[in-house]
């Protein structure tokens, strides 16, 4: 992927070794330098495995909130792949409000994700919590996720920036759009432009939903930044019945990608199960998104869907 | 329109004189009784002039935030009609944060709205602020709007309920979805079921936009209530460049109607001009909404659009 | 009370008939004109009955959230008077989220308040909801309260302004400090400077308390405006165990007055009973406030407390 | 300090080696186990250097937001000591929204803090950002601060828990009281009970102040938890003129300690200078706090104040 190098106070103008030469060199100031839309009006394309995010298509990443065991993960991964996901999400390291909650399978979970990738061919996207883990997680994962609680964990942002891997940067639920763009700068400043901004809801007085998805922020981030924007409807709303309408809204507002919790047995999930879609509901959503994408003059990203492939034979 | 009568503590079971007999009589309790989706699973259709809101179509009401003078209003009304609005919005009485701001043309503004209706054929939707004004405003307007600042002005809600006219009830920017549904009960309890709930953004810490549009609330209100749901993107975001993506999102989330500020000279507007769309941008949005509606399996409400009628000749 | 008259766009420079001549005439602009601290650096004193609010003392107004019946009201009024309240609060007209909740005893409640005043000598402070009621309520009450839900009911503000009675203006729970100051201008612009600003909590994501008391706003309103500031800890927190510490904090931050829910049988209250203090707890709070006031170099306002008067004999 | 050991799912019942035997063993469940008030009704006393926080006294920690250079730090430390601070605050590692802002002097800043300690005798409290730094920072500092942005950086919480040093845990500005208590469990679960909870304002729609200090949370945390509570007025309000009233309010609400930004030349500060108190204003505040403490029946913690010692000679 092309590298932008801006020069100005505090910005290192040398591309990190191993990365291609910069395509542009622009003088910038202020807190928001490298991510500005004007620097790359055509937008940045982020590659996760075989998938391109930010090329105008609509990509869906799906999977369970947490990796729980081999059977659960492979079953969820099959569902994701079957209905046209372009990537598999799944948490091996889980940041939990309480130390007494399930903290994820950790390294064993990462191994299971690698197995699910071999099984389905889908690239894997997983969260990293600790700067000391970045190198080892990056050796396996196709994309690194920074969770909302770590959006301003600047040491961690710097480490994932150095990894060179694609990064999904979730907006902190107490953070503004401008702070999200500034957090992305920590990754970009390491010479890594493979950043996807992810809106996942903010804290407001309205508790009918778990968080309040800031739909305007999706459009705002697209207009201000050249980075692709993802939306996580599942964690925003926390209610399966709202995942579909909110996913549709996100796509219509211009989101490049969606991140959707899918689980084969949500009632048994060890983490955030109650917000996950059942396989059939996920399939139904994918069908509606495909029609919606047509109405928007866009296409769904991803491999030919098995059902369609069958029908074509 | 059919009348639902629920019986239970505090609910008068007799339909107001002049209204048709109830079609249902259901025992209900709690704060949310008459608006519940289960009472009318097919949803309520609200008729404003010739327009039906809530029948599955997507309706757009457009016009200036405030009525300023004859020339301005007629020009804006022409734009609204030309691009396919089904109704004209315009404030004659303006609730302003400061007593030193323009407070609207008041009764003279209402006369101008009536003139604009004669000129374009569009039904007029206008705000009422004072219980003492309801009868006189209702004699002219086709639909009454309750502004966000008055959502819990219960005396006013009762009066507009008695008027029998369609009511657009804007969600208070500090109020929850449940409080909005409870406020609608004040109107419904008067035997007036012609209520449209309107999401127009809530107050949050994010000030990049004027308010934060709660897109999940659109779906939630549709699921919980049988009343149609409108979205006001203009007042939510306060930035013209965000009106289009947010309007698209609202439609995709299931909104029945949109309320859009359009102005022929926003820079000269006496109230909230900076958020209004220019005529061309409004036309462009209407075109995109039409394609989006197709992707959603819905149609745009309204009269045949002039441009299309010309082309068909 | 002295009248400030400012001149400038939109400000009528003539004092309303029956009010004294202005003591100052100042050119002002912007949304915040008549309430600005600079206009009256020494601060405004508001007189409710025999009580002065804003003279440096700390005043407590107490009583039940709603007037329920004669026995309840008189018992609560006795408690308020016994422990040194300088005024009695009690709602005759109650703005309720739901039309199915108790709406107050209305005019009969107002009569009971007048009886409680005769019984205890305390001036009465009560809420008015409807511009059509202002004249009649003002004929009985010593002070009018504008509830949080009506802070931007500008027709009502104008009417209470015209009444000339002292007005307690509660901050809307979704409104900013600046909007509160602008709302006060609607009353001031009628030539009525007897306005007390009341902080009663705002809506935030934190739901451990009913609202979030904005303690900084107390100091900010004192600094920006010459009007006295009251705090309503009871409605802010909604939890009796927090009323004492929050009352202490409000006094320490500079509040001129407190508004406290007291009930002789909170578990039977028809409205917001669960936040009311029991008589003993109210007495304990009053004792602590008296010591706190000494630490602040202030004194508690009000008549000699019965217990002290007994002791002095 | 005594160690509480709770037993239950996920709780290790063995005290970490080197710590004293537990004084209590209680079966607990839920997210909030070790910090519950019932486990230690008398409250926990946290020792930072010679200072006890949580023993009923009111402690003030003061100093510059960031360590900038030797001269600035020593001058600020002198002011803090002179007026009766019991500890020196100062950031060597600064978490900044933007990578282009001053990030602190880092290890050199820590050395300067140690020098300021030698100079004034005050224990030093400083922020740690990275789990990899904890051991080295802990070797110098007397207390570790976890900033609001890292309140849910659970890897970091675990490391500071292991360090055994006193920890000031700042509430995340988007986090609830319950989440703050749950975050403290991460530290407590390592056998380290030396935790001070710090309220420093939350994000709300009100932007007249930088954050909204949640004064009720101070009382709520004291009631729910046995841990001492600190308040940081400076970062909450971001306006020097509000630091005094808000500090007074915090003390009156029951805070055990205050954390106050003081700077000898705020206009030259490299970080958050505009909210720092000038030396004279800090001295004035300390005098008022002393009188307030008397009104509250409490005393100010700390060494004999030089001015007083002089006078006593």
Task: Describe the structure concisely.
Four copies of one chain form a homotetramer. Chain A is an alpha/beta fold.
CATH topology of chain A: TIM Barrel
Cα separation of the termini of chain A:
36 Å
**CATH architecture label of chain A:** Alpha-Beta Barrel
Derived from helix and strand composition plus strand pairing, the structural class of chain A reads alpha/beta
Average predicted confidence as pLDDT of chain A? 91
Layout of helices and strands:
The structure is a homotetramer of 313-residue chains.
Chain A: E1 3-7, E2 22-27, E3 46-48, E4 51-53, E5 59-63, H1 70-82, E6 87-89, H2 107-120, E7 124-127, H3 134-138, E8 143-146, H4 154-163, E9 167-170, H5 177-188, E10 195-199, H6 215-224, E11 229-231, H7 233-237, H8 240-253, E12 257-261, H9 279-295, H10 306-312
Parallel strand pairs in A: 1-2, 5-6, 5-12, 6-7, 7-8, 8-9, 9-10, 10-11, 11-12
Antiparallel strand pairs in A: 3-4
Give the tags.
homotetramer, 313 residues, alpha/beta, TIM Barrel, eight-stranded parallel barrel, two-stranded parallel sheet, globular
